Amino acid sequence: MGRRDRKRLATHQALQSAALHLVAERGLHQVTVEEIAEAADVSVRTFFNHFPSKEDALVGLDRERAEELTQALASRPLVETPLESLRAVLTEFALEMVERSDEWPLRMDVVKASPELLPRLLGSVSALEQALVEAIAARQGQEPGAELYPALVASVTMAGVRTAISRWRECNAAEPLTLMLECVFDQIAAGLPSPLASKRPSSSRHPRVASSTPGAGNANSGAIDRLGRALPRTLSGVGG
Known about the structure:
Blueprint: H1 3-26, H2 33-39, H3 44-50, H4 54-59, H5 63-74, H6 82-97, H7 103-113, H8 118-139, H9 149-170, H10 177-189, H11 219-230
Helix pairs in contact: 1-2, 1-7, 5-8, 6-9, 6-10, 7-11, 8-9, 9-10
């Protein structure tokens, strides 16, 4: 990354951080773009060069990070399988993400206080995953959506990264995140075999999983809590 790119990235992150801390302190509707720009020591014009709105600065798709991820994926050796390439790229991404991990709980507090941000956050995660799908399809000479595999491998590996980071935090970083990620990707590569498979009686039927619909009054809060546990970042690919 050149000097100009590093400077742009630093400004981008400064704006995200300023937006997050101001909104966490005052509330979404009590903070203006002008105040965010001033806190980051840049002009309003510079703010809009990075984000179309304050909401995007908080939880929108970080297009620069998404582009970095897809470029990194495209540059991996073609002899690697898509899973091997994703393992390398997403592991590096996760390690960078946790460097700003103190902002993730704050971001989720902001979303809880302003539930209207939740659809935008979910959309950002989906868009990041779709960018990976397109990059995987391109590596295989396919059109996005033409085959099931690119979408499946992108979805599974992204879920794996979220799970590894979530478990790593739950154990208070008692073990290195790299070890958690290694374990996750090893299990994915092995086809997710159940550790209890040898202890269970054989059966030709899969157990049914009961589904439930949460009450309308708690829908937003429950969804946000689950998201906060499952997506510890700034996904820095997402909103930070």
